Amino acid sequence: MRSFPVTAAAILLAAGVAMTVAPTGAAAQNRSRVVIGMQLEPPHLDPTAGAAAAIDEVTYSNLFESLTRIDERGEVIPGLAERWEVSADGLTYTFHLRVGVKYHDGTGFDSADVKFALDRARGDGSVNAQKGYFAAIKAVETPDPLTAVVTLSRPDGRFLFNMGSNDAAIVAPESADANKQHPVGTGPFKFDRWVSGDRVVLVRNPDFRDPATPKLNEVVFRFISDPAAQLNAVRSGDVDAFPNFGATESLAILEADRNFVVKVGTTEGETVLALNNGRKPFNDVRVRRALAYAVNRQDVIDGAMFGYGTPIGSHFAPHRAGYVDLTGLYPHDPAKAKTLLAEAGYPNGFDAVIRLPPPVYARRGGEIIAAQLAEVGVRLRIEPMEWAPWLERVFKGKDYDMTIVSHVEPLDIDIYNRSDYYFDYHSDRFAAVMDELSRTIEPDRRAALYGDAQRIIAEDSVNVFLFQLPKAGVQRAGLTGLWENSPVPANDVTAVSWQ
User: Fold this and answer.
1) What is the pLDDT of residue 19?
2) Is residue 180 packed enough to be buried (19+ CB in 10 Å), middle (13-18) or exposed (0-12)?
3) N or C, which terminus of the chain has less Cβ within 10 Å?
């Protein structure tokens, strides 16, 4: 995944950029404070009521906690539950909760909050973006304040992992409705303020159950979407770390500078050219396959990501068990694309609109793909959108032809089985595989079923599968504790400190 393009370095050096820049600004002075850069501002701060990864990047483990927790390796570890037992039939989970946990507003945490949060997430009025995580729950019982018993209607091989997601954050009935703007959790940091368009500030929770956590007094999340501005913020010392750095063309230069540490890890972000399968002409598989042949994914990786990114041929992370390499299914072949378009009744191509959210990979990638599709007669009008309108119009409203986005939830291939999902894809064959997978616990069989699922959506060319988004990060030397990989969307700062 990792590469350092010589061309990018040569351009910056030719422009007179110094190889070593001493840190300046307040961020470089205060060792009890850290400033984290983010490309996108979250639409709100309630992880149980939104799909935007930026929500989790601010709140996961920092503000909110769940019964279990996912660590940097992707392993399930204790969260608000210090331990648990699972019945032999895989249907009953008994969670033993931690003692002395309080919410940021001073109210106590107990098993009644677990029942409230899980029932709320799975209820008829739920707005949880991952409501499927809770579909197998039959009942939540509270035999005592420190014990929660969750009974499932069927075995769920991912239940403990899902209960460690931010979507499963345990929230209190007293504060749940206000969490979008004034989040109240149980985590080691408390919400301090939100300066719209600029930053969210968290402060140390003095009442956190573990006095050694956190190690910082203040964490500032700065929102900087422009890649050039990201680079300037890092080099000037206004930002201490950019865990998901948009200016990938500058990473080689920063790595050569002793003031910075560059880390390139993995994410769960399948980056796709998403197609509206319910709208003509994309409801014709020949058209969708034509687009797959027309797009040169390596050119997109090189042009939009400066070589960072792993090509994918379906919606599955290459580092996951069960991955099948399907990148050869649709090799770049413009002639084949034109033939399929003609067979589908579009010998002269067609016009379409591609609506692009703010991330750098989407904006840059959209321009490259528009040029590639123009070669086979597909004429795209590019429409940039801010994040909130994109979520409302494209993700929720399905009002789009094409878009580009990274889906960063782990093992989320099941989204292709959601009847109301914005791809508008429907397949009985895929649904049958997902149904069997939902009832399967044995790892080897689950891996095989994941392989079947990948092949089905690749053969149906539901989307044009581009690349696995890398976690390309840069941080100031001396800063430790940030994740190198992202098994879940997170900027977990609970272990971050200055050396």
Assistant:
1) 35
2) middle
3) C
Burial (CB < 10 A; 0-12, 13-18, 19+), residue 100, is exposed
Q: How far is CA 379 from CA 286, 342, 464, in A?
A: 17, 15, 17
Query: Average per-residue pLDDT in the chain?
Result: 93
- Paired tokens of 323: 């991955």
Nearest to 471 by CA among 265, 306, 242: 265
Q: Which of 224, 385, 376, 370 is nearest to 303 (CA)?
A: 370
Whose tokens are 């929500």? That residue is: 55
Are the beta carbons of 355 and 369 closer than 8 angstroms?
Answer: no
Token reading at 243:
């865990």
SS3 106: coil
**Which of 313, 343, 338, 337 has the alpha carbon at shortest distance from 326?**
313
Distance CA(224)–CA(241), nearest Å, equals 12
Is there a contact between 64 and 183 (Cβ–Cβ < 8 Å)? yes
Cβ atoms within 10 Å of 127's Cβ, excluding its own = 12
Cα(187)–Cα(208) distance, integer angstroms: 7
Q: Which residue from 273, 269, 334, 274 is spatially nearest to 308, judged by alpha carbons?
A: 269
- Contact partners, residue 169, CB within 8 Å, separation at least 6: 47, 48, 59, 64, 65, 66, 117, 185
Question: How far, in Å, CA of 65 to CA of 168, rounded?
Answer: 8
The encoded tokens of residue 286 equal: 């020949």
Percent with pLDDT over 90 in the chain:
91
Mean pLDDT of 153-166: 95
